[in-house]
């Protein structure tokens, strides 16, 4: 067979999706599988989205503006004002999901061969976007024992070399659930400013902070040139399939470059963008009950986890995720075993193994995250309680069957 | 200001979109501007698309499958069977427009620094996708005087070096309207097979062949390993804003690699994909009246052009475009002048200047296409006749004002 490129061959399998065939097999055997592997909210998408689809009456589904439609960008600017982020419609480029916003941010900040500093563990697809842009991710490790908060400045500065062009942070964090403090964000801002780096901030879980406040990269004073915000409606409005995100920056050159990149793929999806315009007008009150619901889910998951002997994790303050260290040597095998070999009362649990959330390529260290799993608490609380009960029993059974 | 990357800075402005501000100014002066610059069909999107939006009743707009939904891929396979292309749902990856399909094809075929051979003039955004993938496009020139058909094999083989990994062809062609013959497609297939290259074929205008038959890369025997088809609903169903395309290949490794790339951006837009499923079932009869309409438009445009002294172009057989040589030295200036300085009875014409359809970067030759413009005949026939009349008068006036 004609050989495909090395870069497409080493492209990482998604740790979130690669166990799906085993889950399908378990379900085919009549088992209940609690899907804690993927951050797919079960919350209904707000009615204005569906109403906008029903009311859609354009005769021609035509190309839209590459940077997104003016009314939608204005609605986004208003939404951001509600988050104490002062930006104008002209600072925003609408993208095909947060995914494309990250891709554009990487392309704007780096040349081929450059590096972006990122805190490990991190959202698995950052590895994929880095490969697509021919850059390396330079990881700085954060630890379960400290709630995955930042290491001291020295550790961060030590990882920055001449080819480093940006720092990428995600807050609230996927996969750890960590909300970086105002002090931590300021520290990153100071380093970025001092060393002339872009500070790219992935804030798609902004609304899901259960304690304290969220600090956006756009809140940092004096960082107008360095700050690039990456965002999406996927989690905010439970509209993952809409593939509507945005890139926001006050740096005129960076915004102009992002628009040029956007022109190459013509425009974001027209219909879904118009439906998102309807949702953007929902206002901040919409999120309060959602946040309460996810806080209950977080509590149930975390409390359940804490009942399992040997688990290490601090209570995460945001997003939908808990990254936990289990008393299991190899969570890749364990996660597969949960689907192929284990059930309790005909039920089992699907989790995302830790290693997929660590750097690939140039700075890869084999074996990282092997004793970790990511749990997405996107099910109703009773189901999460049941899932944690099963996980505890499964850990016992697995350790009995695989003594170290 | 913090500097953006060189690669994002050299990103080409779209020749199709960059004159928009001047057109807006002309319209603000009360002028009628005939937009022949962009291939945005005025044909209404078929009813099943809009009906599907109204009937959409999912509660959660959830992530879909990265490779596209099974029912839609099956509907596409049936559509292809109607084009005498035998492929299965498993040969197809649904993409975010044809744009992403080209990007995936480049990534699957090449490493950074590799080359793709492409026939010049070509669709302007190929330059952008090449930049994004850190590869070079190696152009092989085709000429207005020969209807932009292929040069002899020797000229093609001479442009293939050790870093060449693929040949990219577009048929029916954007920007030239040329439909490559079965013999031409077979010649490309033989070269690809002989030298172990992918043959990537962009066939988004398949339905718009006004004489003769369309030869798809998927029709070529023995080329299963080499052939990658790039496609889109944009032109076929006048649904440019839907951003739904696909990549089709029988090469298992290439398909698997494209699915891995697709996983990184999670899924194509869910709602628009479901609306496209409804359209995919329209059948081949749908296209006959459309083709007749565009043939009339082609005829009106070509006949009008032929009345302008000094114009060189052969009658194009497909797509929505005519690439014509005008008796004007610099069509960049002429295209701008049409909008800023010229009108006839308060009307003028917007065209896409030729140079944007030639290679940028490593193999760039300055001044190529300067005496050419691309005309998109996507307006009703009377408007096209009026536009050609104006263009002829404008050429006269411009040459009188700018004697060479």
Descriptive notes:
Two copies of one chain form a homodimer. Chain A has 404 residues and is of the alpha/beta class. Chain A folds into two domains: 155 residues, Aspartate Aminotransferase, domain 1 (Alpha-Beta Complex), CATH 3.90.1150; 238 residues, Aspartate Aminotransferase, domain 2 (3-Layer(aba) Sandwich). In chain A, 37% of the residues lie in helices and 15% in strands. Chain A is built from 13 helices and twelve strands. The first copy, chain A, has a seven-stranded mixed beta sheet, sandwiched between helices. The first copy, chain A, has a three-stranded antiparallel beta sheet with strand order 9-12-11, covered by helices on one side. Chain A is globular. The N and C termini of chain A lie far apart (43 Å). The model of chain A has no long low-confidence stretch (mean pLDDT 95). The interface between A and B is large, with 83 and 83 residues.
Summed up:
The structure is a homodimer of 404-residue chains. By secondary structure, the first copy, chain A, is of the alpha/beta class.
In the CATH hierarchy, the architecture of the largest domain in chain A is: 3-Layer(aba) Sandwich
**The first-level CATH class name of the largest domain in chain A:** Alpha Beta
**What's the arrangement of strands in the largest beta sheet of chain A?**
2-8-7-6-5-3-4
What's the total number of strands of chain A?
12
Pfam family, one (chains A, B): Aminotran_1_2
GO biological process, one term (chains A, B): amino acid metabolic process
Family (chains A, B): Belongs to the class-I pyridoxal-phosphate-dependent aminotransferase family.
GO molecular function (chains A, B): pyridoxal phosphate binding; transaminase activity
